[in-house]
Amino acid sequence: MNVIKAMMEQAEKYPDKPAIHFQNESLTYKELYERVYRASYMMRLMGLQPDDRVAIFSNNRIEWIEVFLATLHAGGVVVSVNPQLGQSEINYILNHSEPKFIFAETDLLGNLHGNSFGAEKVFLMEESFISELENFSQTALSYRASVEKSEKAIYSMNRKEEDVAVIFYTSGTVGQPKGVVLPHRALQWGISQTSGYWKVTPEETTLNPMPLAFAYGIVIVALGTLFVGGTLILARKFHPKAILEKIETYRVNVMWGVPTMYIMMMNFFKEYDKFNVSSLRLVVCAGAPLNSSILDRFNRTFKTLMIDYYGLTEATYITSFDVEKNAMRPLSFGKSFPGVEIRLINKEGREAGVDETGEIWLKAPSMMIGYYKNLLLTEETIQDGWLKTGDIAYRDEEGFYYFIERSKDLIIRGGINISPTEIEDLLYQLDNVGECAVVGISDELFGERVKAYIVPKRGKTISEHSIVEFCKGKVADYKIPEIVEICEKLPKGPTGKILKRLLRTS
């Protein structure tokens, strides 16, 4: 079913029901979709054509969801820009995607430095004086004022399943962020699993602390909730106390997050166990495998079902556990969803047997079309219709999958992908750096932390502090090395390749 059509049906069924609660604002389904219609019509009047790109550069807020849906409604393509990224990454994404419109928050406009990146209009999402947009001259408009002037046009572009819906930029192992192109088909399938597999109902309230800039936050949680007529509690950012308060205040039934969030919640709850979280029916986790100690501790603390799932931006989510059977297993990420095919391919290029490891190859209705403007990488990643994930796993005799490692050189900190190569390229800009290697080291809270090994040039010195200071403002804060070790040499193999596996365990 078309995403917009499904949302329209919920507005007709539940016009006066709360759709979203955010901070001090609440919108009913009727109010939400009237805003969507007006924003869509406003974009069309200003010249948006089918497949034109619309960039959203904002932290979580109701307007983020409005603009996302309005863009799809008008036939455009959403470009999601993660506000946590560094300046060079933001510049690259906006230059690479060439948006017709940019929707941004006031406090993020400084990152644009008056550059509209060729966009015809830049819309400010908050109520604000237009003087705050003076650097953008004639391209700047107030989003809310523009929408209020617009009519409510009940129409929707007739988009096909394979038409592009959204581009999410994600870190790769090398180079600049990759633009993952998802069609309407992927959104439709992804959001339908929220109700179909995890049994979210119109009567339930869900909580989203995940950034809407990620596929996890907007597709699986936000749209998945609105697709069935549920009520979405949207957090601007994650903080354990604020999240626990929302669970109690709104009697939240289902919550999504990553292991780091749940560990922080458990640590806070242990000290301040005054919160009533008895309404929780289900807690969903992604981003890293859950070990038995975290599962046991969570079950003891919150007394509710926690399940894990496996997914990636290129295919949203593809495995999880049967909620009705309560079949969660430590370190496993479940069985494949109906309609998903998975193969494990070993180093010899053959399909792995039971309990044998191999790279995860998959086919799924939620698969991407490819990487934006990168045919070579697309052809390397998708072969004969199979998406090569770069993740190594094994399958037991009952069909449960277990994550082993990444064959790709990625760091995952708090559920977010980080490219070591990107940080290494930055560090090599320092004159005193002779060699460097960036790896992820195991961490109980974040899963992995970023560590940089630095070999100074002969006769030169460099400090750990100077490394960290140099990185600030050039990459996202979460990518800055938290640990820096100055060393005389790096371990290498016969060909001179740096042996990062030794650095990870040293």
From TrEMBL:
Source species of the chain: Peribacillus cavernae
Pfam assignment, any one: AMP-binding
InterPro entries noted in UniProt: AMP-bd_C, AMP-bd_C_sf, AMP-dep_synth/lig_dom, ANL_N_sf
Membrane-spanning parts: 213-238, 250-269
UniProt entry keywords in alphabetical sequence: Ligase, Membrane, Transmembrane, Transmembrane helix
Chain ranges of the AMP-dependent synthetase/ligase domain: 9-372
Similarity remark: Belongs to the ATP-dependent AMP-binding enzyme family.
Domain AMP-binding enzyme C-terminal: from-to ranges: 422-497
PANTHER family in the cross-refs: LONG-CHAIN-FATTY-ACID--COA LIGASE
One Gene Ontology molecular-function label: CoA-ligase activity
Protein name: Long-chain fatty acid--CoA ligase
Isomerase listed as a keyword: no
